[in-house]
Amino acid sequence: MSRQRQRAERRGRRGEALAALYLWLTGWRIVGRRVKTRKGELDLVARRGRTLCFAEVKWRASPGDLDLAVDGRRLRRVADAAALVASRYARPGDDIRIDVILMTPRRWPRRIVNAWQPGA
């Protein structure tokens, strides 16, 4: 792995750790981290009450770069991965959603709640 890729990996892991802390501080319980599936990896799985959330975390050096961090293709990958493991985490009657947490240094996280709508 190249040095540049190693640095990006460290930044990504740090962003995920900070996003997990943010979720915890806002009342969520982290039930999964870096969950691997054949369709891809889920950054965080969190629960609050009857809501199960699969969170995609994006860390960028500047706020402007965050606007292009997530697109339909990436969200589709997260949705496909979440579908594969939802039965592992979901309880009957749960609301299941996919959120995106956008992180950049020295700023509060920006959260896109329910970022993926099936059929969108």
Radius of gyration using CA atoms only: 14 Å
Count of alpha/pi helices: 3
Task: Look at the structure and give the mean pLDDT.
Answer: 91
**CATH fold group:** Trna Endonuclease, Chain: A, domain 1
Provide the number of structural domains: 1
The biggest sheet, with number of strands, parallel, antiparallel or mixed sense and barrel status, is: 5 strands, mixed
Q: Report the principal-axis shape.
A: globular
What proportion of the residues is helical, as a percent range? Answer: 25-40%
Strand content: 25-35%
Per CATH, which architecture?
3-Layer(aba) Sandwich
Tell me about this structure.
- Pfam families: UPF0102.
- Belongs to the UPF0102 family.
- This is UPF0102 protein ACFFJC_02475.
- This protein has helices at 3-25, 63-66, 72-89, and strands at 29-37, 40-48, 51-59, 95-103, 110-112.
- By secondary structure, the protein is of the alpha+beta class.
- It has a single domain, classed as Trna Endonuclease, Chain: A, domain 1, CATH 3.40.1350.10.
- Strands 1-2-3-4-5 form a five-stranded mixed sheet, with helices on both faces.
- Strand 2 and strand 3 form a beta hairpin.
- The longest helix is centred in the first third of the chain and has 23 residues, at 3-25.
Keywords:
about 120 residues, Trna Endonuclease, Chain: A, domain 1, 5 strands, tRNA_endonuc-like_dom_sf
Gist?
With 120 residues, the chain is an alpha+beta fold.
Helix-strand layout with pairing:
Layout: H1 3-25, E1 29-37, E2 40-48, E3 51-59, H2 63-66, H3 72-89, E4 95-103, E5 110-112
Parallel strand pairs: 3-4
Antiparallel strand pairs: 1-2, 2-3, 4-5
